[in-house]
Specification:
- By secondary structure, the chain is of the alpha/beta class.
- The chain has two domains: 52 residues, Spermidine synthase, tetramerisation domain (Spermidine Synthase, Chain: A, domain 2, Roll); 227 residues, Rossmann fold (3-Layer(aba) Sandwich), CATH 3.40.50.150.
- It has ten helices and 13 strands.
- The strands form three sheets. It has a seven-stranded mixed sheet. It has a four-stranded antiparallel sheet with strand order 3-4-5-6, covered by helices on one side. A two-stranded antiparallel sheet has the order 1-2.
- β1 and β2 form a beta hairpin.
- α1 packs across α2.
- The longest helix is centred in the N-terminal third of the chain and has 15 residues.
- It is globular and about 60 Å long.
- Bound molecules: S-adenosylmethionine.
- S-adenosylmethionine binds next to β6, β7, β8 and α5.
């Protein structure tokens, strides 16, 4: 009889009555920064994982599903993708995906937590793959809200890769009308703002719909897109906002040309995946159409 291995567990609690247990092969770091609780660990199924305040941020085996989805529809559709701003994104994987596009002249990334960036460089180099050292990258450690208030720069694409806006999270102040208007003022003409926008499953799409309803007050086009992210154990939702570009209807020829120009090989995103991302299930279309909470 093989000896039963005695595991240590990382338990992600979705609700007081719902948990996903990940066995831990190795714990690289566990501690608190000035802003949040951080852990970096390795699980047998998902590989290395970054966990903040008990929530999985990304995992080695499937982070490309999340990061390619966050970045490429926006860049494929934007009128001008030379200047890109990433808010949050401490692992450096959003930066990595942006820099795969040869049209990008500069990508500014602003993350509030130096420790997340440092741990990502030390333990999660597979995520950034040299992006932090790319000559086109400008990495700023600071509050994205303060950065956007202070700068007069405008960007063709703004990508929000922030933690969930839970009450005590440093991302919480970035989810309200005033900040959504500030972000819009930092977009260039015809610009696109895409945000990771919480869970999109039938049981828990409430926060996503609240974000969508609030953003509709600011943009002519606000569209949701969703994909399953195995490490998150649920459908994950994103929002694309623009006054000019409706990403759901982007022509395949444009996406194919965009993808063909990217450096390296994609794992998830192409024009076929684009259609799948924006083809929303009926329950979500109904929830998005219903009136309800806003910020
Ligand atoms: N994929 C993730 C998810 O599903 O929630 C988000 C990944 S990324 C690690 C989130 C980053 O947002 C963290 O590194 C955190 O430090 C950063 N962050 C939170 N609040 C921020 C703020 N006010 N300004 C800049 N960065 C912030």
């Amino acid at each position: 009889m093989p000896k039963t291995q005695r595991w240590q567990w990382y338990v992600e609690e979705f609700a007081p009555s719902e948990q996903h247990h990940h066995a831990i092969d190795e714990l690289y770091y566990s501690g608190r920064s000035a802003f949040q609780q951080i852990a970096v660990l390795r699980s047998p199924v998902f590989g290395k994982m970054l966990v903040i305040d008990g929530d999985t941020q990304s995992a080695q085996v499937d982070e490309r599903i999340y990061h390619e989805t966050l970045v490429h529809p926006a860049l494929a559709g934007a009128a001008d993708r030379r200047e890109v701003l990433v808010i949050g994104g401490g692992e450096g994987a959003t930066l990595r995906e942006v820099l795969r596009c040869p049209d990008v002249v500069a990508c500014t990334m602003v993350d509030i937590d130096a420790l997340v960036v440092e741990l990502s460089k030390r333990y999660l180099a597979e995520w950034s793959q040299g992006a932090f050292d790319d000559a086109r990258a400008r990495v700023i450690v600071g509050d994205a809200l303060e950065f956007m208030r202070a700068t007069s720069e405008r960007y063709g694409v703004i990508l929000s890769d922030l933690t969930e806006p839970l009450e005590d999270s440093p991302s919480n102040p970035l989810f309200n009308d005033e900040v959504f208007e500030l972000i819009k003022s930092r977009l260039a003409e015809g610009g696109v703002y895409v945000l990771q926008a919480s869970t999109g499953a039938a049981i828990n799409a409430g926060l996503h719909c609240k974000m969508a309803r609030t953003l509709r007050r600011h943009y002519a086009h606000v569209v949701s897109f969703v994909t399953h992210v195995p490490a998150f154990d649920t459908e994950w939702a994103f929002l694309a906002c623009s006054d000019r570009i409706a990403l759901a209807g982007l022509e395949s020829a444009r996406i194919d040309a965009y993808c063909a120009a990217l450096s390296g090989e994609s794992f998830f995103y192409d024009s076929t995946t684009h259609r799948r991302l924006f083809a929303l299930p009926l329950y979500l279309r109904r929830m998005l159409a219903a009136s309800g909470d806003t910020f």
